[in-house]
Design a protein that fits this description.
Elements lengths: L22 H7 L1 H8 L14 E9 L4 E9 H12 L10 H15 E4 L9 E8 L6 E9 L8 E4 L10 E8 L2 E7 L6 E2 L9
Length: 203
């Protein structure tokens, strides 16, 4: 979970993440998404900032008709959620990579949903993960993709990561389709929200 602070949006030089994700999959995400993620900043301490939030970036790629998603969560909070979800201890350092990635895949599938405009659930494709220590305690980027051949207009999203673990967890998703963009906010126990881009300004 990321704790917000005044400097969270301060732009800082992009540092390539650890090699947890194959280079070819990073290229799938596109440089624009990666630079946008790097500019979001890091998490702050639990004591100073007791607000629980998680942000996600979702970019629609017309050439592949896929929605590329990057979720940012506070690393230690996610471990607690994974423990409750799987019923076993999980460690970023000691749990085998295949086991950890499988647990992350299952957890995200259960708590982050993408539905087509017809209301059909779209299947998550796991891409990988990368740590970001930012300005405080480390957060974790989780990368995944969803097929969305009908495009994002009218599709539905639900971002409920960590809401089953922390009371008052509020999540946001910024969806982009070329120059169009909209940010959706998800309160605990909320429903999926439909993607509706604002009308462009007309002079």
């Amino acid at each position: 979970t990321r704790r917000t602070r005044a400097s969270a949006n301060r732009r800082r030089p992009f540092a390539p993440p650890p090699p947890l994700i194959p280079v070819t999959l990073f290229r799938q995400l596109g440089l624009r998404l990666l630079f946008a993620l790097a500019s979001l900043g890091g998490a702050t301490s639990l004591i100073a900032h007791p607000v629980h939030t998680s942000h996600a970036e979702a970019d629609y790629r017309r050439e592949t008709q896929r929605l590329e998603v990057a979720l940012n969560v506070f690393a230690d909070d996610l471990l607690l959620a994974l423990h409750r979800h799987t019923g076993r201890e999980i460690s970023y350092e000691q749990t085998p990579t295949t086991e950890l990635d499988a647990a992350l895949h299952d957890y995200i599938t259960a708590h982050f949903r993408v539905l087509s405009r017809e209301g059909l659930p779209q299947i998550l494709q796991w891409v990988g993960r990368a740590f970001d220590r930012g300005d405080g305690e480390r957060s974790l980027w989780l990368f995944c993709e969803f097929p969305l051949p009908g495009g994002p207009d009218g599709a539905q999203l639900r971002h409920a990561l960590l809401q089953e673990t922390f009371t008052g967890q509020h999540n946001t998703v910024t969806v982009r389709d070329g120059p169009r963009r909209v940010t959706l906010t998800f309160a605990p126990n909320g429903d999926a929200k439909r993607i509706t881009f604002p009308e462009p300004d007309r002079e």
